[in-house]
Amino acid sequence: MSIVNKKYQITTDFLEKVMNKTGKWFNGKGGGKTFEENFILNYPNIYQIDKTLFVSLLNSSLKKFNITTPYQKAHFLAQCFHESAGFESTLEFSSGINYEPDVHKDAIKNGNTKKGDGSKYKGRGLIQLTWKNNYIKFSKYEGVDFVANSDLIAQNMKYSIDVSCWFWSFNGGIYKKYNANGDINILIDNEKDNVTLVTKAVNGGRSGLEHRISIFNKIKEEWELE
Question: Using one digit for the tens of pLDDT, what is the confidence trace for 28-79?
Fold first, then answer.
């Protein structure tokens, strides 16, 4: 590893420092008592996962999906930390009822055509994959049937990280700007400090923008990025 690459290495100590989160990770906290109890019961391989293992899986997936420059990694980490409720969960806190075909105006065009599809295809992963059509796309890429067993994504940390990297590289919400075609890295390469733009590509709006910016800036400071 070169001196430059080593400087921008993601380690447990680095993540604890920039995210101000020591102690156990992925406790299921933030979604209420019932969610936390169900998380402990139903996601035993995620609950309080060994940090060294998590960082190893993270670095491997970042390399696999070519999220490698310091700015790309800084943005990715900031978005993942916010979307996962601060490394607490690999699935959305809500029930998913808002994604039902009789509730959400875009449900049917996104593949949620039957009652129950909302909860089955709610957000999962560090960056939460939502909608049946996206589960179909990731299933084809990964070679695993997440359509039939959607919860596999939230139950297995490798899949939770992989789906986030896959989304980042191939399925981000901005296509026309800079001809990104869903590749968030292209947005970053053109506007390296634009957390607002990256956030729009991740979740379609500005939700939690201040927190995402805060984490991004802490990483920039630690890595001495200009």
Answer: 999 999 999 999 999 999 999 999 999 999 999 999 999 999 999 999 999 9
Residue ranges making up the domain that contains 186: 8-223
Angle of helix 70-83 versus helix 209-223 axis, rounded to 10: 140
Q: What is the CATH number of the domain that holds 70?
A: 1.10.530.10
Long-range CB contact pairs, 157-160, < 8 A, 24+: 157/45, 157/46, 157/49, 157/53, 157/54, 157/57, 157/90, 158/57, 158/61, 159/125, 160/46, 160/90, 160/124, 160/125, 160/126
* Residue 129 DSSP SS3: strand
Is residue 2 a part of any domain in this protein? no
Amino acid of residue 97: I
